[in-house]
Amino acid sequence: MRSFGRIFVEIWRSVRFELLSTLGSLLTIFLATLLPGLFWIASKNLTQTEAELKSGLTMDVFLREELTVEQITRLTKEFMGLGGVTGVTYVSKEDALNRMMQKFGPKMLAGLEDENPLPASFILSVDKSVFTQGVAEALSKKISRYPEVDDIVFAGDILNRLGNILRTTEILGFALSVMVAFAALFIIANTVRVAISDRRKTVEIMQLVGATRGYILTPFVMLGGMLGFSGAILSALALNWITGYVSNHLIKLVFLESHEIFTFIMSGLCLGMVGAFIATRKYLKI
Amino acid sequence: MRSFGRIFVEIWRSVRFELLSTLGSLLTIFLATLLPGLFWIASKNLTQTEAELKSGLTMDVFLREELTVEQITRLTKEFMGLGGVTGVTYVSKEDALNRMMQKFGPKMLAGLEDENPLPASFILSVDKSVFTQGVAEALSKKISRYPEVDDIVFAGDILNRLGNILRTTEILGFALSVMVAFAALFIIANTVRVAISDRRKTVEIMQLVGATRGYILTPFVMLGGMLGFSGAILSALALNWITGYVSNHLIKLVFLESHEIFTFIMSGLCLGMVGAFIATRKYLKI
Amino acid sequence: MLNVEGVSKYYGQRQAALSNISFRIDKGEMVFLTGASGAGKSTLLRLLYLEEKPSAGRILLDRFDLSRISKRKIPFLRRHVGVIFQDFRLIPERTAAENVALTLEVLGKSGREIRRKTDEALNLVGLLGKRNNYPYQLSGGEAQRVSVARAVVNEPLVLLADEPTGNLDEQNSRELLELLSEINMRGATTIIATHQVQLTAKYAKRTLNLVSGILEKETR
Amino acid sequence: MLNVEGVSKYYGQRQAALSNISFRIDKGEMVFLTGASGAGKSTLLRLLYLEEKPSAGRILLDRFDLSRISKRKIPFLRRHVGVIFQDFRLIPERTAAENVALTLEVLGKSGREIRRKTDEALNLVGLLGKRNNYPYQLSGGEAQRVSVARAVVNEPLVLLADEPTGNLDEQNSRELLELLSEINMRGATTIIATHQVQLTAKYAKRTLNLVSGILEKETR
Ligand SMILES: Nc1ncnc2c1ncn2[C@@H]1O[C@H](COP(=O)(O)OP(=O)(O)OP(=O)(O)O)[C@@H](O)[C@H]1O
Ligand SMILES: Nc1ncnc2c1ncn2[C@@H]1O[C@H](COP(=O)(O)OP(=O)(O)OP(=O)(O)O)[C@@H](O)[C@H]1O
Ligand SMILES: [Mg+2]
Ligand SMILES: [Mg+2]
């Protein structure tokens, strides 16, 4: 019945005289979808990095003096019994010096071998529960009660604060993305409105000779969908390129996975169709 | 003659039935101008930070052994004679240890006083010329020829590479800003086009009863100007808030200066007027 | 076929465009609707092709109650009603032929059939030579005739003509009325609104005369 | 006043809408322009109010050569030419009164003067009661009369009327022609295009008759 041919003729009628305007709107939609994409990728990478940092984070327990093997065994066992601790490693004074040398180079610390000033320590691996409010404090209080323990260093607080900042940024980014999505919806609606407003007489007359809503709506909704779809594809390509560029020149980033790309592009399509639908409806009387 | 009253009536005619659409376009322009603003502020702050880093950067010349006062005086004089060097400070082994202790805390390095492993050094302040290609290499070659010199450490290379990355990012940001400015132009043009396309018959008839181009153009160009102007003001307010927020929670940032804000808002105004002019012209026959 | 029962139409409160109009038109009849400028002729026709709804009264077309019909059904009803509009209502960005074809396109007819019928209809109004002219490239009378061709191309059950000869000279007017009565012969119930009383006299058809929205007299 | 010298107008290559037309109209004259549908009446008027330019020939209006005038001057010339369009050309989002006022607004007249003259003109065409109606709220004939009011409100030097009675019944047609000839008496050179030959007979004015773009005969 209603052939695809006709729909494309109708779309072409809209685009034909307004090629420049259509390209302009494509550029705008491309830019508009770029921003949510950037935030998506940034948030994905930040979340991942934060998780990695957290999983690699340790609590360093410095000791007053080197321990005997029995002491090590006992304390290891007792520390493992504490909630949130997933691993315990003993670092002797000598191990500590070796680690320090690896960090700063042997030259700088030459001569330190003779009289090693570094203390022995336990390094505790911890799980995520430690990042909840108050847990880390309780844990370090418990540990500091052991007479062998001199000092405890835990970077979790800083990381937690960093995490909060990241989350605030993410929320801001999300809010901005939603606004931008609205803007994209609006841009598409406006482009379609120009197309239909230029042809409002046509629409009116079509209705008078018996065209149904669907018959009139379809080409415009398709036009909107195509705009959103193409904009999102261009945007995905650009994001891929940007991610690659940053990975090569600055820091390694992961890109969206294929199902996420699919979601991204389909969102563009839907946005376009909804925008066009909203814009077109106003011009229909019945 | 042509009263302001008339112009506002005409603008109001355009906006009246399309209040939502006008607000949508305002939001879009606000978002569109936000991005160049963000890049402007980021670039301003990065440039400033880079300049500060560069001005604070030194070339560390490590020595084989402590020098006598005559040696220090002689070498200081000779180093000062080298191009690009603006200051020379001698750091004895003891000074070095004190600095290190300040950095890492006295506890970690306790016992180091007895047998100080750190070398004496000269710290050379350098000027910007050192950041040009090859100058730093030539300088360190000259210095390394002195028999007293053991090793030279200069972070300029890394900073230079960082600078390059910053500049690439700035160029990308600028390109993106230009695209976004085009998009904003397009959005305003499109909004005005909807307004004028809804009233194309009016425009045609006005011409037939003797209205001049200016008479017809003015209200639409003013509408575009107002959109661009308001969008830019909203954007400036938001940027001010964002800068303040980041300054309080992450890192201290400087905001645009008042003449820069003026430029920013006036750009919005001009963009709006140009966009509207382009959109309107097409609908005029004479 | 068409049954108008006590129909009134008010715009605002001040004046009624139509007051308590009642009449019946049988299938295949041809009726003239006369009256001075502003008498309500166009308003009455607008009610019949559902561009507006009556303020009071009922309109029955075939089995359908036009005053109650649901919005979704309006397009399907309009497909059986051909309308010649007083202001032509041609689509500006389509040629004469494309304008005529619209009625058939909407029905999903095949390209071949559309072309054949369109040419036939344009030939009928003597404008086959202007098939590729856009509306702005047509004279007032030509535009009016294209509007006629579009209304009759699908052989509607009901044909409504609003001032179809307003922009035509005598010669063309006579030919057009011949054409309309020919289409009426083929079975289309036809209502022609006009202020040219001398035309109605010549055809000696039933005439409804409106005076300020009131159905005055019925002559035959 | 108006001097048309060998004017032709071609659309595309096939047919001339006007072929080598020449005539002179004196200041204050009233002239009818007749011809069948598609004869070229509207085309000729379009050349006179500069919506189009002639393909060949010269048109002199007062001291101005219309075929050579610069685009920037067109608006100022149009202010002295009142036009009644065949298709009315009313602004849809303005009321009848606002449509009539447009001519004066463009000239930058004061609000008070605009209101006074607008009401006067609407009264002249008998539509003061419909001053606040939008065009879609007017009947065909009413719209035509608003178009007349707009054309005469500024007392133009030249008045062009394209089929001003096409949508009017006899009574209204006669009144309108009375109005136009009254405005002509006051000094406006008036050209009225019409296919209603019986009208021109009644007025016994000079008549230019177009047949397929050729000026056939001139009767007086
Ligand atoms: N939408 C509307 N709102 C208000 N008044 C209207 C509207 N439509 C028509 N009218 C008024 O209703 C009356 C009848 O209008 P209608 O168009 O039916 O007249 P008509 O008989 O077709 O006249 P004509 O021969 O001039 O076309 C007119 O006085 C007109 O002003
Ligand atoms: N822009 C155009 N392009 C092509 N042909 C045109 C154009 N304008 C008019 N024509 C043709 O020129 C001829 C004269 O048109 P015009 O409008 O002058 O006729 P008219 O005498 O006013 O007729 P009517 O009484 O029907 O209004 C017509 O055949 C028309 O099709
Ligand atoms: Mg009517
Ligand atoms: Mg004409």
How would you describe this protein?
- The complex is a heterotetramer, with 2 copies of chain A (286 residues) and 2 copies of chain C (220 residues).
- Chain A is an alpha+beta fold and 286 residues long.
- In chain A, 69% of the residues lie in helices and 9% in strands.
- Chain A has 2 domains: 2-52 and 168-283, no CATH class; 58-154, 2-Layer Sandwich (Alpha-Beta Plaits).
- Chain A contains 9 helices and 4 strands.
- The mean pLDDT of chain A is 81.
- In chain C, a hairpin with a 3-residue loop joins strand 1 and strand 2.
- Chain C has 7 helices and 10 strands.
- Chain C has 220 residues and is α/β, with parallel strands linked by helices.
- A 6-stranded mixed beta sheet of chain C has the order 6-7-8-3-9-10, with helices on both faces.
- Chain C is globular, with a radius of gyration of 17 Å.
- Chain C has helices spanning 41-48, 74-78, 96-106, 111-124, 140-152, 170-185, 197-203, and strands at 2-11, 15-25, 30-35, 56-61, 64-65, 81-84, 158-162, 189-193, 206-211, 214-219.
- Chain C has a domain at 97-154.
- The mean pLDDT of chain C is 90.
- Classes of the chains: A alpha+beta (286), C alpha/beta (220).
- At the A-B interface, helix 2 and helix 6 of A face helix 2 and helix 6 of B.
- The complex binds adenosine-5'-triphosphate (ATP) (2 copies) and magnesium ion (2 copies).
- One magnesium ion (MG) is lined by residues 41-42, 86, 162-163 of chain C.
- One adenosine-5'-triphosphate (ATP) sits between chains C (11, 17, 35, 37-43, 86, 195) and D (130, 133, 136-142, 167).
